Task: structure prediction
Amino acid sequence: MTAEEFDAENDSVIRVLIVDDQALLRMGFAMVLDGADGIEVIGEAADGRAAISQAKALYPDVVLMDVRMPEVDGIEATKQIVAALPHTRVLVLTTFDLDEYAFAGLRAGASGFLLKDTPPADLITAIRNVASGEAVLSPRITSRMLELFGEKLPTEEAADSAHSAAINSLTVREREVLELIATGASNAEIASELFVSETTVKTHVGNLLAKLGLRDRVQAVVFAYENGIVTPH
Result:
């Protein structure tokens, strides 16, 4: 069965694959998610290699991905899953919010960043948000990312020339929206800042993601800082 056929048959249920090398954590996440309406845990994996295999076989909507695992880690697994399954979203799991290894998962294509001690209600909300195409990246996490990578991020003059054409294709308004996304602003906050409707913001977000070849807002944040569109200041 193809991913499209799975989508057609399971459009009302969010299918989740849990990946963590600790069995007790997998069990805990599964208990929380199986008790939530509209969410089904379809599989578990203890390492990145198994995660890739399970994802390709089961077509999950969302993968909860630990990044610190033996052999094939969560970063490599995320890269391969995102490449093979464009409709699958990955939520990175980590113990500490200031974790360079976990942020590498975002650069690998993950759609969000989640602490392992996240309250159950917030975990369920994060799963639903990511499954609906949103990103889980709060202003607090954005701030942590800047603290961690601030000195490594390039200036505008040092931005990757390969991206110059795409960046230049953005309208003035789209660039303003991208700059606000990079601060962790929500659509409602962007709408308020620019005095436009949330529907208009969503249109701008969709357009700029398409022009830059990005999957979601998380990639937009990373792209903006890595290419000097905004700076840590």
